[in-house]
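This follows on from our talk about sequence and fold. Go ahead and set the record down below:
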Amino acid sequence: MLLTDLIAEISTIKIIGSENVDIKNICSDSRKVTEGDLFVAVKGVAVDGHAYINTAIKNGAKVIFCQDIPSEIKPEVTYVQVEDSAECLGLLASAYYDYPSEKLIIIGVTGTNGKTTIATLLYELYKELGYKVGLLSTVCNYINGRPIPSTHTTPDALSLQKLLAEMAEERCYYVFMEVSSHSVDQKRIAGINFDGAIFTNITRDHLDYHKTFSNYIKAKQDFFTNLPIHAFALTNVDDKNGKIITQNTNANVYTYSLETHANFRAKVLEESMDGMLLKIENNELYVRLIGHFNAYNILAVYGVTKILRTPTEKVLLALSNLKPVNGRFECYRLKNGACAVIDYAHTPDALENVLNTVKQINKTGKTICVVGCGGNRDKGKRPMMAKIAVKLSNEVFFTSDNPRDEEVKDIINDMLAGLTEDERMNVTCIEDRKEAILEACNIAEKGDVILIAGKGHETYQEIKGVKHHFDDKEIILS
């Protein structure tokens, strides 16, 4: 593709050199540049791509996009100065792949908790209804049923546009995708024409990156503010920030709620460890998902189907057939009569929701919680999660999660710092996660529920830069 075609709809500050250059590929990693490529120098969180412009040129880059023109200009290279190279990367990738989002109906899901469940349920529902659909999620990406491993909640801009182009080529009709706060802040979703967006909730998370809760909220809000006028915005008004998130959007706003007046409402009639009976509008619906937090997720999915004018009878039947999402309140019966629940809960709010659900349903047996906190992440939530685990459980095991570059004992000590001496009496610290899970299963009796929190769908444990195979599910079923 010619550079002049690529930049046809991109605002530039200055161009030095020829625009009549044939572009072989687009890169933002100088190490991946080959002869004839276009290199975008992005000012990232840890690395500034401008420092690698000369490396990119040595590797064969013919065009450089940057925010700051280098002092040394190579006559054989074209330099394009732009205001925001991160945003420009998404716009360039969209143009390079022939604007794939224009050929798809794309609905984004954002919020602290529930993104994966809602996006996956929508994908599974519309797949069951006979549509060709795509999914971009934390657990796995799918193109019309074909799995593609996922490394981030929202892929980088180049990978994202490539995946969308493949979905368009395979004639997918809908695409459901998780939109993380990081991806909004880092402009990874630039160049995507969204047709709808869902807000689930917002509680403390990712403060290691955003620094303040207000910055975190703003990232979520920016996603809705930038929606086009033809799009819809569906927001949870039971969350105190639900209306704030959509206050500056040009999209058509719809609301959902379990507690107050909204466009879409639901009520939990009955619940057990096998599922729950809901009343959605005037319809009773039994689903195999558990907990009030999942009632919100189901209601959000239902709301989207109403906005998209999908026949209600078909939707209700499809919802009743859906299974829990991998690693999201997955329930397993153990040989000793106890029940083990695997859940991705890794924030204070998520942990509290899941433990409250267990206690509401399991009124006779003990609640046993196995929980850790991730290394190199927000340390402030560690004592908070510890406090919640102890408050809502009969027995608690503090253990490792993904320690990354930290020592497990230091992370556990940060958790213990949030407890009184009396509260620590109910805590057993076992650094080895496998041992902690096995010990929790060993002390459990018939009627007890063991919550294994934090890793959910993950099949690895990240220690000192290495991902070791580790699957909570394999351990409880062994």
The longest helix spans residues 292-307. Residues 3-96 form a domain with the Udp-n-acetylmuramoylalanyl-d-glutamate--2,6- Diaminopimelate Ligase; Chain: A, domain 1 fold (CATH 3.40.1390.10).
